[in-house]
Each structure stands twice: as structure tokens, then as C-alpha cells.
Amino acid sequence: MESGPCSRPAEPRHCVSGRAGAGLAFPAFPLSAAGAEPGSRIGTVAAVLPAGGCGERMGVRTPKQFCRVLERPLISYTLQAMERVCWIKDIVVTVTGENMEAMRSIIQRYGHKRISLAEAGATRHRSIFNGLKALAEDQPGCELTRPEVVIIHDAVRPFVEEDILLRVVLAAKEHGAAGAIRPLVSTVVSPSADGHLDHSLDRAKHRASEMPQAFHFDVIYEAYQKCSDFDLEFGTECLQLALKYCHRKAKLVEGTPDLWKVTYKQDLCAAEAMIKEKISQEICVVVNTKDEESVGHLLEEVLRNELNCIKVTSTVLDRTSGDIENFIDQCYSFICVNVVSSESRETRKLLSILEESSLPLLYPVVVVLVHCFDFTVVPLAQKMENLVWIRELAKEAKGRNVLLSGVLLNHSQRLE
Ligand SMILES: Nc1ccn([C@@H]2O[C@H](COP(=O)(O)OP(=O)(O)OP(=O)(O)O)[C@@H](O)[C@H]2O)c(=O)n1
Ligand SMILES: O=P(O)(O)OC[C@@H](O)[C@@H](O)[C@@H](O)CO
């Protein structure tokens, strides 16, 4: 545990769960609203995210949990995904002492809430154990509560959704332990001592153990307290500890394909591709005033016809009265069309709304600024000035995790 009272940023101003901005704040504890059995109630739920590894198999200097994906550290995506689930009260992240400062600045930079830090251990099990100790011990000045159910989830598994978290928590509530599983992709074989095939396992009868997992806190804490040094040193399976030391047979819950763990460099590329795909699932055309509304609708129609698998909407910024929750849900891609004004103040306005909104944006926001110019009348100097201006704005926006690019459109030609 970090020295002194656990380090814990302010309580969240609000948590997002389900459709962000739809006012559907997930009921904190009576989980029946989430499809659980009517009347099922869970006590406090907490999460432990082991993030103390060095990422040796990634083959880069930076530990993989801190590697950037689209300008943002991988761990920040996982934290954000956990924070979107408002019935998880405390999130304990275990990091090494040398990475504690880096972790704190990520928490501050991306506005993470409900996060407490604990010292990692030399192995994953030891890190998890330290996270559990942080929750178990009533440290003076520490706001952590000993939970009824604790989720354990690798910090390098960023694509975790509320549904699977709920399913493993409800299963753990009933069975004492539960974990996500996935079909095996390759067949598992057992080699003989001299490196030949001894036998192979029937792939259909086996599954890969993934994360998240969940446990009655008392069960997994007791298991870790009884755990042998050998298991702490070489074990990789928390479910096995619950079975071996507490005789609890975990309920296995079918997980979704995106629960995989970022381990090798290609996994980072895959993570980036998945985030880009999530970002590009919806495009919102933004114009500033009612006068430009028809341009927005025209572009919306053209894009909808051209990009038939993408949802396209349009909005007039003035009419949203800055209430960005109205149109940021899954939408992270905006096309700001400036037909009338040339200073693109509506782009700045969108950027400041994004910055001022307390909405925890799960993915970077992409803004394409389309400047319509009549090139025949606009002097070259002004065109160049605009290009420089867009580049400066893009640099500024990047610091807010907004990826901004600009298009200068010569509108003296007739729009087809
Ligand atoms: N001493 C350790 C080792 C691992 N982990 C965490 O456990 C998770 C899953 O472990 P793994 O994928 O093995 O991460 P690394 O140990 O960093 O990877 P490698 O084995 O390639 O070094 C990661 O979030 C990792 O940071 C941890 O908290 N403490
Ligand atoms: O073994 P590693 O440290 O690479 O990763 C830990 C994984 O084994 C673990 O996350 C799942 O298999 C579920 O226990």
C-alpha cells in the first residue's frame, strides 16, 4: 500500500453506465435493473487491477500497461472502462514503486476517479494479493471499503464491458468465485521430457481462462493468505487458488472475443485497430448555425450513402446549448463544417465543450475540420494562414486527447 493514507482522487462527480448522457445512471446496488434476478442485491463491489508487470514479451522498454494507443496509455482505457460501471465502488491498481508517479499523472491527466494505488509485488499473484490487502485493511484515513465481491481484472485487458462484469459478479455472488472463459484457438498439447508429443487435449473439452474474474472477497482473500510461496511465485490462475485453498469451484462464464490480454506487440496494433473501429462507428456532422443546417444535412446524406455501415447524424452546435451529452454516446468522430465563418470558431467551441464536459470519454475524439473556401477569391497568404492555424489548433487539441485534422475545400466548384 502506498505509504500513508491511500492516494485517492476525489469522488466521481457522476458515473456513466449504459448510454452515456441518457440519464441511465446504473442503480448502485439493487442490480435488478441490469437484468439480474429481481431483488438480487450485491453489497459493495470493488476491483483490483494488477498493473505491476514489466511487459517482457512486448519487447519494449515501456511496460505495456503504459504503452500508448492513439496517444493514450493502455491502462487508461482499462480504467475508463471500469469507471463507466458505477456500481464498482473502489478500483485498486497495483503498480511498482518506480511507476507510482507515472500512474498518478495518468490518473490526473485523464480525470480518473475512484482509483487507489497499491504497491505491486514481484509476481502477478503477489500484486493481486497486495491489492486485496489494501481493500481488507482499514487503514486510517483510507476511504476503501472491504467489499462483499471483488473483481480481479488485468490492467492490460482494456476492452471490458459492463455486461461481462455484471455476469461474473452475479455468478461470484452465488458461487463464491467466477471467471470469464473463451474457446481455445489452438489445441493444447503436452510435450514429453524429450520434446516430443506426449498427448494432446481435446480442444472441445477445454477453455481458455480469461478476465474479468470475481470472488466473494473473503474467499479469495483467505485463499491468498493460505497460498504457498510456490503458488504465489509461479501460479497464473486465481480461480485455482479459490479451489485449492477454499474448495470453491468457480462458475465459468462465457466471455466475449474482446477480453483478450495485450501481451505481444501485435496485440497493441490490434488494440489500436479495435479502438479506431469503435471510434469510427458513428459520425456526427457539426455546423454552427441554423443557416448552415442544410449543408450539414446534405453532407450527412452523402456520407450515409457512401459509408452504409456507419451511423451518420448531424447537429447544429448552437442548438445543443453546450450539452454535449446529447450527441456523444458512441460518437467520437465529428466533422465540423465551416461554410460561413472562416475562423472556425465552432470547432473551437466543440473542443471547449469537450474539454469542459465531465463526460469520461472512453476513446480519443476525432474532429475533421472542413473549411469551405472560394479559392478564386481567397489570397494564397490567407490559405496558408489557415493551414498554419489548423496545425496549431491540432497541436493544442492533441493535449486534450482530441485528434484534429483539417480539409480546405474549394467550393467555387459546384457541389455534386
Ligand atoms: N509482478 C507482476 C506481473 C504482472 N502483473 C500484471 O498482471 C497482468 C497480466 O500479466 P502479464 O500479461 O504477464 O504482464 P507482464 O508480466 O507485464 O508481461 P510479461 O510476462 O510479458 O513480462 C498485467 O496487467 C501485469 O501488469 C502485476 O501486476 N505484477
Ligand atoms: O500468465 P500471464 O501473467 O501472462 O497472464 C495472466 C493470465 O494467466 C490470466 O490473466 C488469465 O489466464 C486468467 O487467470
TrEMBL record:
One of its GO terms (molecular function) is D-ribitol-5-phosphate cytidylyltransferase activity. InterPro entries: IspD/TarI, ISPD_C, ISPD_synthase_CS, Nucleotide-diphossugar_trans. It comes from the Eukaryota. One of its GO terms (biological process) is isoprenoid biosynthetic process. PROSITE patterns: ISPD. Residues 281-413 form the D-ribitol-5-phosphate cytidylyltransferase C-terminal domain. GO terms for cellular component: cytosol. Keywords: Cytoplasm, Nucleotidyltransferase, Transferase. It is found in: Cytoplasm, Cytosol. Homodimer. PANTHER family: D-RIBITOL-5-PHOSPHATE CYTIDYLYLTRANSFERASE. This is D-ribitol-5-phosphate cytidylyltransferase. The gene is Crppa.
